[in-house]
Amino acid sequence: MTQIKKGYKQTDIGIIPEDWEVVQVGDMLNVTTGAKNTQDKKDDGEYPFFVRSQNVERINSYSYECEGVLTAGDGVGTGKVFHYINGRFDFHQRVYLMHNFDVNLDGYFFFLVFKTNFYNRMMQMTAKSSVDSVRKEMITEMQIAIPPTRKEQQAIAEVLSDIDSLIEVLDKKIAKKRAIKEGAMQQLLTGKKRLAGFTEPWVEKKLGEIAEIKDGTHQTPKYVIDGIPFYSVENVTNNDFKNTKTISIEEHKFLTKSYKIEKGNVLMTRIGSIGVCKLINWDVEASFYVSLALLKFKKEYSAEFFTHYSNINGFVKEIEDHSLQFATPKKINLGNVSLVKLYFPKSLKEQQAIAQILTDMDDEIEQLEKEQQKYIALKQGAMQQLLTGQIRLVNAALQTQNILEIKAISIDAHVIGGHIVNMLHTSNGWGRTKLQKTMHLVDYFCQIDFGGEYIRNIAGPDNQQLMNYIDSKFEQFGQIRIELRKDRNSGHKHYNYIPTHKITEVEQAFEHYPTEKQKAINDLLNKIKKMDLARAEIVSTLYAVWNNRIIKGQPINNDLLLKDFYNWSEHKSDYSRDLVLRGLNYMQQDGIIPMGWGKYIDKKGNKTI
């Protein structure tokens, strides 16, 4: 028997806090269906139009103006499509609307509870493996647990909404980085844009001229529970080489007597999904099926470059042109793979340089995707605990801060941070503090949004999450060397940032930013380059207090800005009024003027809206 801890009780839907209540959905709201059909949608309509899909259409009429939760009544989205709305809208005749919420039920909290539990509710009411349609009583007779006050419900909803916002931000960043990489591929892999220092011509080659091409076993092997990995098309298309079928060591040795997969080879799909390539960049011991081609490149050609090249339109068309036109499933014979034409740099070094840029972009996207998965997992765990009362919330803002200790840092911070080091490392007063003040000014003045959170610290705006992130990236990729020096007299530690020979990787990535963004950043850096550390700290702090006043809509003049500067911290009294005023005049003359962009910078623990 499950032991129930003090303050909790057993109910029909599980263990919940003693002061929570189990209610039927139908007792807390109204349920109805729409009156519109799919053909009523208008592409540029004024109002949201909810159909049986996660995509929201548009329409020029509205039947409701209220807070509501909607779900598909039938179709492939049954039990999987949910929407929350508070405003004017219309909806399909086979979509259910839950609205007119009881005074004791918060609408957005209900949305979270309903979309978390409704699919399981449906599956409990059928003997089939899926549900074709929703009956009204499936909704109205569903039991849910609710906290005793709307305040607690809203606190739960706020925490989960904040996590959703972070996931959405990462979604947009991933999409942006993929778009940038796609543009870079079309430029760099076609020779339309050449990297600095490379002038040798590109050459046309057939794949069979630059690589040895083999296929896998034509016989279906005998699979075993635990053995040697056996790769097939699905492993390449899903980029999943952990969940593979396995064969015995004896059969593997037999299949690899003549040739085998080795690190640095490429696997390409040739049956079903054709032309999808995967670089084997790990130590490998595996066999493979006839549906894959194994490419072993000659030493003057880069397998990594080819793997990126295989994604451009020209290569895809070549594969299609050489495939069996009427075969089902699609197929390209091994001999025809050899005939596929490629357009390659003659220089191996140019191939490698291009490949490195694109691989670094892939790595950054992968890191963002891992970060996103972390927040998705965090949300799932938080929902399980919050929506069942295992964790109780008193102050939503405080709990959000505890749950979301790590804020998403943009990968722009790595590229632009490295570019800053490369431009400023010989400037007066260079070190970690000047780098941090520069990161702050570039972030706010050039409107980058590096991520993390700036707080008031002695030397000015401080974002340790951001600095720790770029430190880790510099160490990981080796483009910046961080040296620690200790003052013999004071014992103070000084961190110096010095570019290495690999800084060209950062600069090549920086070149892919829009020209106007590059110019804005470089113009600002050239101004900061002339500053010593004291001037950089003064300007960074003045920028922050000035920007704070704009955000809050407060009056601005020199006296008020200087007052805010000296109120920042006791350390600011080290600077004379004349020195600070000269810094302010310099900002005004050189156009380093805030626009009110970004978040208000406050002391740690304070929250300003």
Written overview of the protein:
It is a single chain. This protein has 609 residues and is α+β, with helices and mostly antiparallel strands. The protein folds into 3 domains: 8-147, DNA methylase specificity domains (Adenine-n6-DNA-methyltransferase TaqI, Chain A, domain 2), CATH 3.90.220; 202-346, Adenine-n6-DNA-methyltransferase TaqI, Chain A, domain 2 (Alpha-Beta Complex); 412-590, no CATH class. It is 42% helix and 18% strand. It has 19 helices and 24 strands. It is globular, with a radius of gyration of 30 Å. It starts with 7 loop residues before the first strand and ends in a 19-residue tail after the last helix.
Describe the largest sheet: 6 strands, mixed
Q: Low-confidence spans: pLDDT under 50, at least 5 residues?
A: 395-407, 605-609
Number of distinct helices: 19
Which structural category fits the helices and strands? alpha+beta
The neighbouring-strand order within the major sheet is: 4-9-7-8-5-6
Any descriptors?
six-stranded mixed beta sheet, 24 strands, 3 domains, disordered C terminus, Adenine-n6-DNA-methyltransferase TaqI, Chain A, domain 2, 19 helices, 609 residues, alpha+beta, four-stranded antiparallel beta sheet
Concise summary:
This protein has 609 residues and is α+β, with helices and mostly antiparallel strands.
Secondary structure topology:
Blueprint (H helix, E strand, L loop, with lengths): L7 E4 L2 E4 L3 E4 L5 E4 L13 E4 L5 E4 L4 E9 L9 E10 L3 E5 L7 H18 L11 H5 L2 E4 L3 H39 L13 E5 H4 E5 L7 E2 L3 E4 L1 H5 L7 E3 L1 H7 L10 E4 L7 E3 L7 E2 L3 E6 L5 H7 L3 H9 L12 H4 L3 E5 L2 H39 L9 H8 L8 H13 L7 H14 L9 E3 L2 E3 L1 H14 L2 E7 L6 E7 L3 H8 L4 H15 L3 H20 L5 H11 L8 H14 L19
Helix pairs in contact: 3-10, 3-11, 7-10, 12-14, 12-15, 13-16, 13-17, 17-18, 17-19
